[in-house]
Amino acid sequence: MHGLTRRLIAVAAVAATIVTAAPSAAQAGRKSPYVTVGYFTQWGIYGRNFQLSKVQDSGAAARLTHLNYAFGPVTADGVCASADPWADWQTPFPAELSVDGVGDVAGQPIAGNLNQLAELKARNPKLKVLISLGGWTGSAFFSDAVLTDASRKKLVSSCVDLWIKGNLPGLPAGVAAGIFDGIDLDWEWPGSEGNAGNVIRPEDRANFTALVAEFRRQLGKKHLLTAFLPAAPAKVEAGFENKIFKYLDFGTVQGYDFHGSWENRSNQQSSIFVPRGAPDNPDFSADVAINAWLAKGAKRSQLVLGVPYYSQGWTGITSGGDGRFATATGPAPGIFAAGTEDYKTVKNLPGFRLHRDWRAGNSWLFDGTTFWTYDDPAQMLQKTVYIRARGLGGAMMWSLDGDDDRASLTRAIAAGLATRG
């Protein structure tokens, strides 16, 4: 057993007690060398009823260094646009749902989530806010938009104009200037399959480098530039050149969806290491993903490990035992989608037994029929040990609306990364 594995297992003895309490005032006041990046979903204000005021009131905002607002799509015309102007800058928030406790009024310069982001930054002056471009359903036209030098310049200029300069359609020029501190690129994926129908080309690999270089040129050093990066070594090789990190402040590495309910066998979706007895070879894990990026020459400090605030689930398991690596009949039922469920919901499911594999860094719930693989606060603390041991840049969370009202997962991550230890 190597030293890192011993350290990760040893933390199990104290994890549960440490992470259930908030950091002390002394801990919270120390400057951490790590970033903590949380994604806020634009559409979460609807069915999920999750507003930015909850990020503030739960204590999550005070424990984040960066907040990524998801998503801004790239259109078929090769420019940046809003996926939902009503959510972004039009919908008014009443006092009880507003970050500053004051309701929006008719005639104010800007409303919507962007105004709430401005209020969140006013309450948390050190928080950096980025607009995330693309996402799973918003990446269809990246390949076309970056095909030539002229098209790249056109795309980047439109993104800077809309999101950084704040020139929103139908509103006074610059009305949203200063809300976003930078841009996060979520092209899923250059050179390899993402959502069905996405345009893909072999040239995407070189063009992604040219794109980040153009973003850096137009953004300058004042604004941040980050990117969401895949976990699969094949996707890493197909879409990304080593030199992208010359232009990025950091990259967030997908640390989840290693397995899911699209398969017919229960498994882990976010394990630190590949579990013993795993049926797939090769298999995915956080360590596999990080090593793939290190092999490309990435600096450890520029790699930020992504962690999930949701679970992957299967049902129809009849083989007994602890339920892991068992044949399932289909995805477990979920509130918003079959096979996925928020941490805040899964943690309260009755009749389930908690199982842990501390050696692999993986936990799951099983009731004899239904299986949920998920990360709880103790598991998040173990991941912060891994982040520190590997010298990585921090943690990224997808997405904040999956946490509970106390921001237990975010508190655990912040506590684990509060000091170098």
Automatic annotation (TrEMBL):
GO molecular function annotations of the record: chitin binding; endochitinase activity
Enzyme Commission identifier(s): 3.2.1.14
InterPro entries the UniProt entry points to: Chitinase_II/V-like_cat, Chitinase_insertion_sf, GH, Glyco_hydro18_cat, Glyco_hydro_18_chit_AS, Glycosyl_Hydrlase_18
Source organism, top-level taxon: Bacteria
Catalysed transformations (reactions): Random endo-hydrolysis of N-acetyl-beta-D-glucosaminide (1->4)-beta-linkages in chitin and chitodextrins
Residue span(s) of domain GH18: 34-420
Protein name: chitinase
Signal sequence bounds: 1-28
PROSITE patterns hit by this protein: GH18_1, GH18_2
Keyword set, alphabetical order: Carbohydrate metabolism, Chitin degradation, Glycosidase, Hydrolase, Polysaccharide degradation, Signal
Enzyme class: hydrolase
SUPFAM superfamilies associated with the record: (Trans)glycosidases, Chitinase insertion domain
Family under the similarity heading: Belongs to the glycosyl hydrolase 18 family.
